Amino acid sequence: MITRRALALVAEDTELGRWALTRALETAGFDVQAVATWSEAAAWLSRASFSLAFVAVSSVSGSAADVAASMRAYHPRTRLVLLADQDRADELRLACGPGQVLLTKPLDLEKVASVAHLGLAAGGMAGRRGNP
After folding, report:
1. Is the pLDDT of residue 61 over 70?
2. Domains, the chain
3. Which of the pair, 33 or 1, is modelled with greater confidence?
4. How far apart are CA 79 and CA 75, in angstroms?
């Protein structure tokens, strides 16, 4: 029997952040592809379908608002979770559209797990990978 696990994408510019997010999401039941930059994440989004995408604003070379708009336009079934320092939170809340989430750093991994579980419960299963 093949079980299906949802796919999550992590774009975080720090190695420790990628590791922590990956472990939290794997524990929540996701297969994870972790990268350091938004450009790498965009390449993965063009090749695979993901249920969740955690994108650190610090990994984006351009505008986080553009990332949010791009996700709404081209990947509407992928739930975007923007990760930002507290000092940018108000600005970025305005960039988030329906179904998009903003988490502030330092990250609370319980909140990460909660967002992941909400993504699964909401049927955010755009991306799945079969595992033996």
Report:
1. yes
2. 3-131 (3.40.50.2300)
3. 33
4. 8
